[in-house]
Write a structure and sequence with these properties.
The protein has a three-stranded antiparallel sheet with strand order 1-3-2. It is 46% helix and 10% strand. The protein has a domain of 92 residues: Winged helix-like DNA-binding domain superfamily/Winged helix DNA-binding domain (Arc Repressor Mutant, subunit A), CATH 1.10.10. By secondary structure, it is mainly alpha-helical.
């Protein structure tokens, strides 16, 4: 008789931002072709180092202006703005205007756990980096 393996540890527990009224992944029906294509498109948007860093910065800071994010990431404001538009199109971000400034923040509560799970996968594969940026 085969021994049942223990479930892998999860970095993000349900309720840490993601909707708790969703079925567990193992209980969901197999993705349809259309849904699989939508997931693929979402991962294409996330498949950009600048957008990942912007999301991480916004998760850490709560909200920030284009100018502030550009300074933090060492980029031009127009380049940051272009990437924010792509993220806002997916409804991951929202913005508010205060005078001349536009403040962006993460709107979708699943973003932070998704980034955390990505880091979890990297750590499990030994793909993390040290503080100075060197791979370990």
């Amino acid at each position: 008789m085969a021994k049942k393996q223990a479930a892998p540890a999860v970095c993000c527990e349900p309720g840490e931002g993601c909707s708790t009224d969703r079925l567990a992944l193992a209980e969901r029906p197999l993705l349809s072709f259309v849904d699989a294509v939508k997931v693929m498109a979402l991962f294409k948007v996330l498949g950009n180092d600048t957008r990942i860093r912007l999301l991480h910065h916004l998760v850490r800071s709560g909200e920030a202006t284009v100018t502030g994010m550009a300074k933090t990431l060492g980029m031009k404001p127009q380049a940051v703005s272009n990437q924010l538009v792509r993220l806002a199109d997916t409804r991951m971000l929202t913005s508010r205007r205060d005078g001349n400034n536009v403040y962006y923040r993460v709107e979708n509560p699943c973003v932070a756990p998704l980034l955390d799970l990505a880091l979890c996968l990297m750590e499990d594969e030994g793909m993390t980096t040290t503080r100075n940026g060197a791979e370990t």
